[in-house]
Amino acid sequence: MNHEDPVLLHTEGRVRHLTLNRPRALNALDHAMVRLMADALDAAGSDEAVVAVLLTGAGERGLCAGGDIRAVRDDALAGGTASLDFWRDEYLLNARIARFPKPYVALMDGIVMGGGVGVSAHGSVRIVTERSRIAMPETGIGFVPDVGGTYLLGAAPGELGTHLALTGEAVGAADALLCGLADHFVPAEGLAALVAALAECTTPEAVTATVEDHARPAPGGELAAHRAWIDSCYAADTVEEILDRLAGHGDPAAERAAATILAKAPTSLKVTLEAVRRARRLGGLEAVLDQEYRVSTAAFAGPDLVEGVRAQIVDKDRDPRWHPAELAQVTAEDVARHFAPLGDRELGLAPLPVSG
User: Which CDD domains match (predicted)?
Assistant: First the structure.
């Protein structure tokens, strides 16, 4: 094992460890890491000596802050297609994680955002701690939740997922459990003992039982207390009506949510709402990932992703100039083009529906 590799692989007992190893970049994913993870899962899945996979992140700050969005911006400015190739393999990896035939244990400790959600929240055993901060913040950079994020958020109870998708709000352990983004809470101080216990497991069933033995009740969250206004306000058909309901509800938290949403990219907001609603109807993760690839491809060709990354990551002035700048200027046609079929460039995880 070369400790400079971006994904570290080793085995303890009968558990194969995958460690994302770019701590200075908060383990942000690049194409090489996605390929390494895919190869590692192929090997672990077919190795009878391996009973489970354990995903962790190097460093103290988090599992993974997402994809390398600065590289995506550079690619877009250069007129390249490397980002589309990266997303293709990343989304295929997300589907592979969801289908993995053995326990896939993800330690979602610290920051877990964007692509980090994709490599963890589709696993079969998802563990959060009191340090977990989980988010799909794409609307703030002129993009749309991907990596199966619209599938996960669409499946959350009530309109919680819509709230998280539009605001990009990060949630802690209890709210991640409530929204179905995680399965178990283990205090951070108990993770080392859990990992040591997993090394003693000789069957998949023992892995699951061991995690359950180490799990504890999560500290209280925030979303449960806000379900009434979240479900009422976000049930509206349009972003504009959602904002009207939030602003007029009277709860200060609803008003803050409205202010948060108004700072996001108008096109991203409308496409995100449509993507989450469509994801609920599509049903399966594979079909949703196909849809997300169409949406990501369209967003990559638009102006807002480049501008959003500039404002948040490059210049850090936090003053993006969205185009269009107002929700009212985003037409139904603007939204629809994000869902247009890609022909021979489709991701192709699920069969296309037969028309007629």
Answer: crotonase-like
